[in-house]
Amino acid sequence: xxxxxxxxxxxxxxxxxxxxxxxxxxxxxxxxxxxxxxxxxxxxxxxxxxxxxxxxxxxxxxxxxxxxxxxxxxxxxxxxxxxxxxxxxxxxxxxxxxxxxxxxxxxxxxxxxxxxxxxxxxxxxxxxxxxxxxxxxxxxxxxxxxxxxxxxxxxxxxxxxxxxxxxxxxxxxxxxxxxxxxxxxxxxx
Length: 189
Known about the structure:
This protein has 189 residues and is of the alpha/beta class. The chain is built from seven helices and nine strands; from the N terminus they run βαβββαββαβαβααβα. About 3% of the residues have low confidence.
């Protein structure tokens, strides 16, 4: 079990997708969410987009490994799919926030925890604003500002919970570093 987290806009989704493409026997978990689908997103590839009622039912039935509310939307990890892949001997990568990571770590104490950091706060602000307002076109400027404020708190908390911190200054280097962490023998975690 590998948990990858980081503030909004830091590039964690891109890093996770690249790692999953390059390593064998890896499953990149797809989360469920109640937020609206973005114009460039695909149901089942980027997220499973479901209603709040469906999400509540999954919680009630114990079908989520973890879940959290983030910026007014619910996100969670489908337990059945993770269990299936772990049973098949695959390394499962969860791209989740700190709230979810703490929940998963209690269930899988040996999970490897990787936090993706921006090079600077200024660079993170640029990425968040560019990504949220231009590429995804779904967040207002106020929401982007809230995400930037939350990023500082996430980074501070990450130092307490994560074994590995990876700075995403260069995407290829960050991908390579995450791959090396995942490929370390279990005794070195």
